[in-house]
Amino acid sequence: MKAGVIGAGTMGAGIAQIAAMAGCKVWLVDADLERANAGRDKADASLDKLVARGKLEAVTSDAALARIEPSADQAMATHAADVVIEAVPEDMALKRKLFATLATEAPGHALLGTNTSSLSITKIAKGTGAEGRIIGLHFFNPVPLMKLLEVVRGQDTSEETVSRALAFGELVGKEPILVKDAPGFATSRLGVLLGLEAMRMVQDGVCSAADVDKAMELGYRHPMGPLKLTDLVGLDVRLAIAE
Ligand code: NAD
Predict the structure, then answer these.
(1) From the centroid of its chain, how far is CA 97?
(2) Euclidean distance between CA atoms 212 and 193, whole angstroms
């Protein structure tokens, strides 16, 4: 399978890595070659960590890395792709423009996924001409370690696209859940709510930030408290999702 990943930042580098580990040939695209190369370097460092921990053979890691080709030429990188996944910044206008281009640049059979954490899949797809092929493929950070894939079905996403997205999720070693296009999907809707309430609790003097986190870690067996998690994701990102 051939994959195009657009945006070689935190998420794009991780998505390229797991697709390459699953045997896909991957073109990793960014606005310039320097950033695309930096994305491949991130995947390289992450693969090295898996090898050092004994979770991956060095030879398998080398083969995966060799399948990732950095590029600044989106048209070239996507013209033969079976799946294209977008991981550019969380900006509706940017994503809409990108999918309108992909609708004509990528082959007619290509699955078109967006890694948005909060934007409406229906709105991203509307008017692009490829509404039926566009779907949310919401991976989690760090992509190589997090098992969940939230597959988000837009109003116009076809049944075939849904089945192919679920199959792609399994191919890259994830456990997909299928979610309707609704604000916050399943994960951000509950996750951001906990994060916001945790901040209000500190503001109201209910307990310290450290103790809010401890309450959820020890009392509810969350691997990480809601405030630590908010710091990891980034306050700016969480604010944008909440809004
Ligand atoms: P990032 O800023 O690390 O990476 C974005 C990359 O896209 C940058 O390298 C940038 O140069 C590139 N880019 C911008 N415009 C481009 C264009 N027109 N063509 C090609 N490349 C372009 O961002 P990120 O954290 O990887 O987030 C990407 C997406 O994934 C966002 O929609 C975000 O909401 C979502 N997401 C992020 C996380 C997270 O924890 N960071 C988790 C899940 C989903």
Answers:
(1) 18
(2) 14
Tell me which residue of 70, 66, 135 sits closest to 102, measured CA to CA.
135
- CA-CA distance, 25 to 85, in Å (whole number)? 13
> In three state form, how does the secondary structure of 177-221 look?
EEEECCCCCCHHHHHHHHHHHHHHHHHCCCCCHHHHHHHHHHHCC
pTM: 0.93
A 10 A CB-CB count for 152 gives 27
pLDDT tens digits along 45-74: 999 999 999 999 999 999 999 999 999 999
Tell me if 116 CB under 6 Å of ligand 1. yes
Ligand 1 touching residue 84 (CB < 6 A): no
Peptide bond before residue 142 is cis, with ω within 30 degrees of 0: yes
Among 75, 74, 77, 72, which Cα is nearest to 25's? 77
CA dihedral sign, ordered 56, 58, 59, 62 = positive
- Residue 208 Cα to ligand 1 midpoint, Å, equals 33
